[in-house]
Design brief:
The complex is a heterodimer of chains A (90) and B (445). With 90 residues, chain A is of the alpha+beta class. Chain A has one domain: Beta-grasp domain (Ubiquitin-like (UB roll)), CATH 3.10.20. Chain A is built from two helices and seven strands. Chain A has a five-stranded mixed beta sheet, with helices on one face. A two-stranded antiparallel sheet of chain A has the order 3-4. Chain B has a single domain, classed as 3-Layer(aba) Sandwich (Rossmann fold), CATH 3.40.50.1100. In chain B, 35% of the residues lie in helices and 14% in strands. Chain B contains 15 helices and 13 strands. In chain B, the strands form three sheets. In chain B, strands 4-5-13-10-11-12 form a six-stranded mixed beta sheet, sandwiched between helices. Chain B has a four-stranded parallel beta sheet with strand order 8-7-6-9. A three-stranded antiparallel beta sheet of chain B has the order 2-1-3. Chain B is globular and about 75 Å long. The chains are: A alpha+beta (90), B alpha/beta (445).
């Protein structure tokens, strides 16, 4: 299972949960499973099925998945996934 | 020489003159709240920055009809210098009791520099004259006012350098602790600057984007006021004052072209927003303005999107440039910045470091202004846009010099052969003895 860290603004959709463990072999699988178990997150995470919301940045072990294999990035048991707003810069 | 200051002209009659200041009980009515830039959902004013519905960025919404009734050219002209003369267009109810004297920086004619670029009417907005020597003081002034309003316990930021000093100084003035997160390899002058104001500086072993990611997580958990994260909707509004000052200094009209550096893209787009608001409330005529942005070639995701016509900003993982203040690989407002340039016949130029350094030297030697690297990018971008026809010879062009060269002292020497000065060749002369004979010997070499 991978661990997903949920930002505060999305925790109303997870019943206040900050860390959620979910099965999946890729980031896309994990996020799809997350949305299946917490449907309130769908609009924030996916623009459409299989396409990330452009305001959502996803990091695996602190690396932006756009520098890896995007939603096809493989993940394993010890991997940490963080969801953050696309909000960079001064 | 840039010796003449373009001051604000006498205020012409305003068709709808208002009182000198908003009535006490209506001061905050003009601030409607926050609003999602993507889906339009309203949110209450608070230290929040993300739409809970669509994850889009929040921005401040104003009742501009109400502002129109309160703010006139004459009202503004009667107020003291500084950004608070435009209070009604800022997300702060009343001018803070304490704060640095920010804004009202000069707009200077630059004929000598303009002649080398092929622009007859080049004007330099010298924002290096702000209290901490960069335009960031504008944005931080708004952010710190809101941090005090919200009762936040600390001020913080993720910085490429200029914001570090601005945040540290503003926090010092209001008595808040400041935490400044920077890439560990930042220019030492910028780190020392923040330390001087009593900030806690946290060097992070990574790029600016790594620093920013870390700060997003810290901001979420600790509740500190990160000026460019959870105070960002307010912070970004400060850059509009550049637009207000430029329009006022031009006699309440807009220039043909704005040239500005692009890092996150926030300042670039907020200048356009500022012009739009001035036109909406009737202080200027709505005339077309082309926006030319400059990025360092070694970190130019917005220029790349502009060039390819893409509406997606491909992030740069490892920036490679001396222009640290623009080294943001994953710019938050990159897409609207590219759209702004595209929509009005402007451009986003990618500038090699050597051209940046040369532009810094040329600006200093022809106009007496020592700009930091982002300023060099701006001047070189103006030159590139002139070459490719985006800027025409008779355009009135305002170029923004957003920071002081003393913060990036190594940059100015890039590409200059290390050779001692000689009579007729300026530079650093060899050390001589303390006698006239020694000087004469050097002079007659």
């Amino acid at each position: 299972m991978s661990t997903i860290r949920i930002p505060p603004v999305l925790r109303t959709s997870t019943g206040g949960q900050k860390l959620i463990e979910i099965d999946g072999t890729t980031v896309g699988e994990v996020l799809t499973a997350l949305v299946a178990s917490h449907p309130g997150l769908e609009a924030q995470i996916f623009a459409e099925p299989g396409a990330l919301n452009r305001f959502m940045n996803v990091f695996v072990n602190d690396t932006d998945i756009r520098h890896l294999e995007t939603l096809a990035t493989p993940v394993g048991e010890r991997d940490s996934i963080v969801l953050l707003p696309a909000m960079a810069g001064g | 020489m840039t010796t003449e200051l373009l001051g604000a002209p006498p205020a012409p009659p305003n068709p709808q003159p208002g009182p000198a200041a908003p009535k006490a009980d209506r001061k905050a009515d003009r601030i409607l709240g926050l609003r999602c830039r993507a889906c339009g959902r309203p949110e209450p004013i608070g230290p929040s920055y993300v739409c809970p519905a669509c994850f889009g960025p929040l921005e401040v919404a104003y009742d501009l009809d109400l502002v129109r009734g309160h703010l006139s050219r004459a009202t503004i002209a009667a107020r003291p210098a500084g950004i608070w003369r435009y209070l009604e267009l800022l997300p702060v109810a009343v001018q803070p009791g304490r704060g640095l004297p920010v804004g009202s920086t000069p707009l200077l004619p630059a004929e000598r520099l303009g002649a080398t670029i092929g622009i007859e009417r080049l004007l330099l907005k010298d924002d290096s004259r702000n209290p901490t020597l960069s335009f960031k003081d504008r944005a931080v002034a708004i952010a710190v006012a809101k941090a005090v309003d919200f009762g936040l316990e600390a001020l913080a930021c993720a910085s490429t350098g200029n914001l570090a000093g601005a945040t540290a100084a503003a926090a010092a003035v209001v008595g808040l602790p400041a935490y400044v997160f920077v890439p560990a390899d930042l220019e030492p002058a910028k780190i020392d600057h923040a330390l001087a104001y009593g900030a806690t500086v946290v060097p992070v072993d990574g790029t600016y984007d790594d620093v920013n990611r870390l700060c997003l997580e810290v901001a979420d958990e600790l509740g500190w006021g990160f000026v460019n994260i959870n105070l960002r909707p307010f912070y970004a509004e400060g850059s509009k004052t550049l637009a207000f000052e430029i329009a006022e200094a031009l006699g309440w009209r807009l220039p043909d072209v704005i040239v500005a550096p692009v890092a996150s893209g926030a300042m670039f787009t907020k200048i356009a927003r500022g012009f739009d608001e001035l036109a909406t409330i009737g202080l200027v005529e709505r005339t077309p303005v082309r926006f030319v942005g400059g990025q360092a070639a070694g970190c130019s995701p917005v220029a790349a999107a502009f060039r390819t016509g893409s509406d997606t900003i491909e992030p740069v993982r490892t920036p490679n440039t001396i222009v640290r203040s623009l080294a943001i690989g994953n710019p938050a407002d990159g897409r609207p910045a590219a759209e702004l340039a595209r929509s009005n016949g402007g451009s986003i130029e990618a500038i090699p470091d050597e051209a940046t350094a040369e532009a810094i030297r040329r600006t200093a030697r022809l106009e007496g202004i020592y700009a930091e690297t982002a300023g060099g990018v701006t001047i070189a971008a103006a030159e590139a846009a002139r070459r490719n026809g985006t800027i025409r010879p008779d355009d009135e062009v305002v170029a923004l010099l957003t920071g002081n060269g003393l913060k990036t002292p190594d940059a100015v020497r890039l590409g200059v052969p290390a050779q001692p000065a000689e009579p007729g060749r300026p530079g650093l002369a060899p050390t001589i003895g303390p006698s006239y004979r020694a000087f004469e010997a050097w002079l007659e070499r």
